[in-house]
Design a protein that fits this description.
The protein is an alpha+beta fold. The chain has nine helices and 15 strands.
């Protein structure tokens, strides 16, 4: 438990050596602002929402969703209880702490390879399944006492949002109704990242440059900057929009769309002013599921770009490549 950054970071004045990244891996001082951020307003017509989603997915690999129907009070309560969790004494969090990735509810620091890493990421993470809710609640932390109630309500509402977004994507790509049901969205995980204030953000990293291996990620990043997306050869900062969710296209959606949508390569930087907590909701295929370009998107004029691949095999390649977007996606391209 002494490994958790949140357990000891408030007591130090300088960054420990094993958190200092080599110069070529550190965040750059200059990050380009995104002057026209991709925003989808769900109070607009379905046609307009679909068009905005497809354009954003093609050009950026992510977009922000506004007017989504999830109350600000519920979002605030969820953020409060998750921050409270990370603020609890280490001995209270001990029951959830494990580096064993097979555990369904796990609290860990940096990555699962912590013991073999040369340099650690400045973050703690709590991950657990969140659907079906009745099968998951007993796995979740018992403290804070309102954790299961509030996070349960939050998970239910975010699931409704993600299903609505997947329906819009399905319609926009002209796929058969319910295409993303069943095996392609079998697993729903809540992944909470906590980045304590850092004594020297210029030397540290919250998360490495990577893409998400899943279908889609719904992220609430609160009101503190930290997420960067790589676009057109430069890093852009994703400014928080009050009460908005960020939707990140995953690698499986890029494959299914036959490159009509692209996965967003992203990273996380730290700051020295405030702790930053984000809530990620991951939609993941079953491990046995085979993913390939949708048949309706492939014809003689639009040949399949990617080969069919079992998701568990993709995850293995993802781990071997450390989530590197270009090498990973190139590996699954069909030879032409």
């Amino acid at each position: 438990m002494a490994k958790l950054v949140s357990s000891w970071s408030k007591d130090i004045k300088s960054l420990p050596e094993n958190y200092v990244f080599p110069p070529d891996q550190r965040p750059k001082e200059l990050v380009a602002p995104l002057y026209n951020p991709p925003i989808v307003d769900l109070t607009k017509s379905a046609d307009e929402a679909r068009q905005k989603i497809l354009e954003a997915g093609r050009d950026f690999g992510f977009f922000q969703v506004m007017n989504h129907g999830i109350s600000q009070s519920l979002i605030n309560e969820a953020m409060d209880v998750l921050k409270e969790f990370f603020d609890m004494p280490a001995e209270v969090k001990a029951s959830a702490f494990t580096a064993d990735s097979s555990k369904r509810c796990r609290l860990y620091t940096s990555t699962f390879q912590y013991d073999t890493e040369e340099v650690h990421f400045w973050r703690d993470n709590l991950t657990h399944p969140c659907h079906p809710l009745e099968d998951c609640l007993q796995l979740w932390p018992e403290k804070p006492t309102r954790y299961r109630d509030i996070v349960g309500k939050y998970s239910v509402e975010v699931r409704k949002l993600v299903l609505k977004i997947l329906d819009l994507i399905c319609e926009g790509l002209e796929l058969e109704q319910g295409y993303f049901g069943d095996e392609l969205s079998r697993i729903h995980l809540l992944s909470v990242n906590h980045y304590p204030r850092c004594p020297d953000p210029s030397l540290a990293m919250g998360m490495q440059r990577h893409c998400d291996p899943n279908v889609v990620t719904i992220l609430f990043q609160g009101d503190t900057n930290g997420l960067h997306v790589f676009s057109d050869g430069k890093w852009i900062g994703v400014e928080p929009i009050p009460n908005a969710f960020i939707v990140i296209i995953g690698c499986q959606l890029q494959i299914i769309s036959n490159n009509k949508l692209k996965s967003a390569e992203h990273r996380v930087v730290t700051n020295s002013e405030v702790d930053r907590t984000t809530i990620g909701y991951f939609v993941i295929p079953s491990y046995e599921c085979f993913v390939e370009p949708a048949k309706t998107l492939v014809d003689e004029h639009n040949p399949a770009i990617y080969k069919a691949c079992q998701y568990k095999e993709f995850l293995s390649t993802y781990a071997n490549e450390n989530g590197k977007y270009e090498t990973l996606m190139e590996f699954y391209k069909l030879q032409t």
